[in-house]
Amino acid sequence: MKPTPDHEELAAALSAADLELSPAEVHGLITGAASFAQPPPVAYLLFGRDAPRTPAADRVLEMTQALAEDVHRRLEETDFEFEPLLGTGGLPERVKALAAWARGYVLGLAAGGVRDARELRGDAGEFVLDTMNIGEAEMDEDGDTEEQEREMAEIVEYLRVGVQLVYEELREAG
After folding, report:
1. For the packed helices 122-134 and 145-173, what is the interaxial angle rounded to 10 degrees?
2. How many CB atoms are closer than 10 A to CB 78?
3. Residue 129 three-state SS
4. Which CATH architecture group holds 7-173?
5. Sequential pLDDT tens for the chain (174 residues)
C-alpha cells in the first residue's frame, strides 16, 4: 500500500502539476466518488478525459490514488476513522478548506452519477443539500473564535457521519 500524502505534500504536488485545486477540494472530490461501487477513475476526476503525461501529473495521480485507497479503506472499516482533509492551519484557513472540501464532495458525487440530491433517500439527500450549503461557508470575522471552533468541530463531525450514510446508501444501490 502506498503512503497517504498529507495536506502539504498534496498541495505542493497539485501546484507543480498546475492544478488549481486545493488538497481539501481534491479529498472531497475523491470521497464523493468513492461512494460508488464503480467510482470514476481519479485521473478523470482531476484531468478529465485527457490526463497529461508529465512527471508532475504522474506524481499527483500517484498521490491521489493512494488517497483514494485510504478513503475507501476508512469508509469500509467499522472503526469510523474517516475525516475530511482540511490541513492544520488557523481557523480561517480551515473554514476555507471546509468549504472547498464540501464543494469537492458534491462534485465527486456528481461525477459518480448523483445529479440531484433528491435522488438519495431521506437523510442522505438532506445531507447532500446541507453539504452544498457548507460549500459556501465563510469565516465570521466578528464572531467569537471559541464558539466558531466549536461550530467547526460540529460541522466536521456532521460531515463524517453524513459521508458514511451516503457511502452506505450508494453502495447498497450500486
Report:
1. 140
2. 5
3. helix
4. Up-down Bundle (1.20)
5. 677 888 999 999 999 999 999 999 999 999 999 999 899 999 899 988 887 889 999 999 999 999 999 999 999 987 778 999 999 889 999 999 999 999 999 999 999 999 888 888 889 999 999 999 999 988 877 778 888 899 999 999 999 999 999 999 998 876
How far apart are the C-alpha atoms of 53 and 61, rounded to whole Å?
A: 10
- Which cell numbers hold the place of 137? 461557508
* CA 3 to mean position of chain CA atoms: 18
Q: Letter for the amino acid at 44?
A: Y
pTM of the model: 0.93
Distance CA 124, CA 161 (A): 10
Cα 170 from Cα 139, distance rounded (Å):
32
